[in-house]
Amino acid sequence: MKRKTTKDILLESFRELAESNPVDRITIQEIVDNCGYSPATFYRQFQDKYDLIAWDYSKSVAKIMEKIDGSYTWKQSLLDGAEHFFREKDYLENLLRHTGGHDSFVRYMTDINCSALEKHILLTSGQEKLSSDEEMYIRLYCMGTVCLTCEWILGLHEATVEELAEIYMNSLPAPLHKYLL
Length: 181
Fold this sequence. Notes:
This protein is mainly α.
């Protein structure tokens, strides 16, 4: 049996509150009151609620990325990512609409995606370091897909999950194809 960690319980509490409250109005006190912890317990785990949100997002990305192997393709990971965003659409929309520093949040999501993609490429290619050009292609790709995903979540673009995944796939820079396709 897998037990929930303190971080998991705090996240569960935050997500429960986010179902009916704008994210920017949820306080640390409300999060800990909702799960029976103290603020000190929260601050031993996270710097603030935005750190908790980032940890949540990082876990989701890592879960998808670690599946990629010979039988689980990059294309499948993109579809799984789009499906994840669809399942989490209400929660993510709350984050995007009610998070101070929207641009900082998007940059942080981009950084998490870049880090996960770089780690995956280094692991599968056996390289110790990526070239500067490869790092910039990864950054460009992640910035574009994160911005597009946020706009999709906010209803600025209409696309099915499959269409979104196909757009992710078709926008992969050619120099990264050798690692992911």
